[in-house]
């Protein structure tokens, strides 16, 4: 699986693409994505993080490209966001594990 991170300025237009046809096999809803405000990572606008197999990644990249003001992050910012999200997921997993000892 490849990891993709996009920065988008217009939340309304972005949500139209992310929420479109949620029951379709190739929807973002089924794929799973993380949407956060960019300021959490020192960035402008909104950040979308998702993972997709190489065989279908182009389809999702094309959809993201159709949103005005939406572009993939550069490598340094991408790494910062991916590392932060992975840390959040690990902390949540550790916290959940402690509930059941």
Topology record:
Elements: E1 2-8, H1 11-18, H2 28-31, E2 33-37, E3 46-52, H3 54-65, E4 70-72, H4 75-99
Antiparallel strand pairs: 1-3, 1-4, 2-3
Task: Describe what this molecule looks like in 3D.
The chain is an alpha+beta fold. The chain has one domain: Alpha-Beta Plaits, CATH 3.30.70. Helices cover 49% and strands 22% of the residues. The chain is built from 4 helices and 4 strands. It has a 4-stranded antiparallel sheet with strand order 2-3-1-4, sandwiched between helices.
Task: Give a quick set of tags describing it.
101 residues, alpha+beta, Alpha-Beta Plaits, 4 helices, globular
User: Could you say what the CATH topology is called?
Assistant: Alpha-Beta Plaits
Helical/strand content category: alpha+beta
**Helical amount:** 40-55%
What is the number of independent domains? Answer: 1
Brief summary:
This protein has 101 residues and is an alpha+beta fold.
